[in-house]
Amino acid sequence: MKKIVLATLLCCFSINSLAAVILQYHHVSETTPKSTSITPAQFEVHLQYLKDNNFTVVPLSELINSVKKQKTLKDKTVAITFDDAYQDIMTNAKPILDKFNYPYTIFVNPNTINLGAQSYLSWLQLKGLADAGVIIANHGFKHDSMARKPQGITNEQWLNQYSQLLLDAERIIEEETGQSWRFFAYPYGEYTPADQQWMKDNNFVAFTQQSGAIGLSTDLSIVPRFPASQPYDKISGLRDKLNSLPLNIRLNGQNADTIFERNTTMSITLNVAVDDFNKSQLNCYISGLGRQEINWHEDNSFTINFSAALPTGRVRCNCTAPSISKPGRYYWYSKPWFILKEGGQWYPL
């Protein structure tokens, strides 16, 4: 069995540090699949909550530039993003966003747009949105997972093939909209350390689908976003996410691995610089397994011996702890894994 050891977790938090959240949406509709949808009425509830509770909604570029330049932003900063460029963003989401005058980002797949399906925005529509200040960003040439290497080629060959298409997508977006932010959202949220390194080497900022707040130490190759579609669309659950604080984690070597075959990893150890939370109040949950027992060590590290094998599929370990200095708010970090079937076969999308 492999044992994953996570690198030092720096959870020190200054009141003046950047504490921001990115929300991720797909459809805004009552008729599309619930797992990727929020109704227009509930979407307006989200935006009204942001306004009523003094959140500052900024363009994604402003948030990312603050991290790059280590420049603080106003506390409770939020950015709004949409994946896949569905037509209902224009028909249902835009009027509500315009009502609140909130900026937003749309991640697009150029190949999908080129096919001209009526359920997706056209380049003409995207150009109009871009001219109005909407950020149009890269979701890959096609909606293919960057982590899923096809059989018959090496990891290096697959990365070269995928990254060339990703660069083609960036070029097409610039040609069609006049924008090139070098922002990339991993399709399905799946990635590997090699993918992360490519993003860093090629000056891309990459966004995932695991939960977590953003701070000045956020790794810009795996920027977290909170999914806000169903079943995560209720304000009762979204409230804590919007008010969350960043746990700053760095992973090295095997610690950063994301893909494992089922039954090949059974524990995880985190080294923690405890500062603004009490050890006894840190809780970690693994999707499919529930709350896990935490075993603290004298050096401020702790180990989770998984209560069962990590289930096949996209798996997260969410760790949260209440802040001492900011009562009612929680530090939040999510570690994703992509667990293959026994024999190394990928689970279906």
In brief:
This protein is an alpha/beta fold.
List keywords for this structure.
six-stranded mixed sheet; Immunoglobulin-like; alpha/beta; disordered N terminus; 8 helices; TIM Barrel; globular; 2 domains; six-stranded parallel sheet; 27% strand; 21 strands; 349 residues
The level of helicity is: 25-40%
CATH superfamily of the largest domain: Glycoside hydrolase/deacetylase
* Total number of beta strands: 21
Mean pLDDT metric: 92
Derived structural class: alpha/beta
Spans with pLDDT under 50 lasting ≥5 residues? 2-16
Count of helical regions: 8
The CATH architecture of the largest domain can be named as Alpha-Beta Barrel
User: Radius of gyration over alpha carbons?
Assistant: 20 Å
- The sequence of SSEs as H and E is EEEEHEHEHEHHEHEHEEHEEEEEEEEEE
What CATH calls the topology of the largest domain is: TIM Barrel
The end-to-end distance, rounded to whole angstroms, is: 27 Å
Largest sheet: 6 strands, parallel
Structural overview:
This protein has 349 residues and is α/β, with parallel strands linked by helices. The chain folds into 2 domains: 20-239, Glycoside hydrolase/deacetylase (TIM Barrel), CATH 3.20.20; 253-340, Sandwich (Immunoglobulin-like). The chain is 26% helix and 27% strand. It contains 8 helices and 21 strands. Strands 2, 5, 6, 7, 8 and 11 form a 6-stranded parallel beta sheet that branches. Strands 12, 14, 16, 17, 20 and 21 form a 6-stranded mixed beta sheet that branches. The two termini are 27 Å apart. Mean pLDDT is 92; it is low at 2-16.
